């Protein structure tokens, strides 16, 4: 093997150094293998989390749809209630006017009855 030092002459390693190099490479390969197994475990765990999250989103999607439907119905009911409240105010005003008119009519009838009674009472005395 060539040493990348300053000279271009080949340097030969002894068997001890080759064995140490092989052991170092073996440890590096084992370390990478462990890291790859950890990465695989992490990816599987991430996939499980993603699947669980998808289930939650799906389950909550129907709840959100129900809430949206309820909000829409509430909006419709509030609009209808506002219209009915407006109609009620108009009807209440009309009833109040009718009560006042009926009161005036009764008052006029009583006044006319009193006037007639007074006129007849004065005619009887005379």
Q: What report would you give on this structure?
A:
- The chain has a domain at 16-93.
- The protein has one helix and no strands.
- It has one helix at residues 15-125.
- The radius of gyration is 51 Å and the shape is rod-shaped.
- The termini are far apart.
- Keywords: Membrane, Transmembrane, Transmembrane helix.
- InterPro entries: Syntaxin, T_SNARE_dom.
- Residues 26-88 form the T-SNARE coiled-coil homology domain.
Instruction: Enumerate the spans where pLDDT stays under 50 for 5 or more consecutive residues.
Output: none
Give the helices and strands as they follow along the chain.
H
Calculate the mean pLDDT score and round it. Answer: 87
Helical segment tally? 1
Kindly report the oligomeric state of this protein: single chain
The tally of beta strands, per DSSP, is: 0
Euclidean distance between termini CA atoms = 158 Å
Global outline: rod-shaped
Our estimate of the beta-strand percent is under 5%
How would you characterize the largest beta sheet?
A: none
* Content-based structural category: mainly alpha
Work out the helicity level. Answer: over 70%
Q: What is the CA-based Rg, rounded?
A: 51 Å
């Amino acid at each position: 093997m060539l040493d990348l030092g300053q000279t271009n002459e080949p340097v030969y390693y002894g068997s001890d150094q080759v064995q140490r190099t092989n052991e170092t490479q073996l440890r590096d390969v084992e370390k990478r293998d462990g890291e790859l197994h950890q990465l695989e475990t992490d990816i599987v765990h991430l996939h499980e989390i993603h699947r669980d999250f998808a289930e939650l989103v799906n389950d909550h999607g129907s709840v959100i749809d129900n809430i949206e439907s309820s909000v829409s119905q509430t909006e419709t009911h509030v609009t209808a209630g506002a219209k009915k409240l407006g109609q009620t105010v108009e009807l209440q005003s009309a009833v109040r006017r009718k009560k006042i008119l009926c009161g005036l009519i009764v008052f006029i009838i009583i006044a006319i009855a009193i006037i007639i009674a007074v006129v007849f009472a004065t005619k009887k005395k005379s």
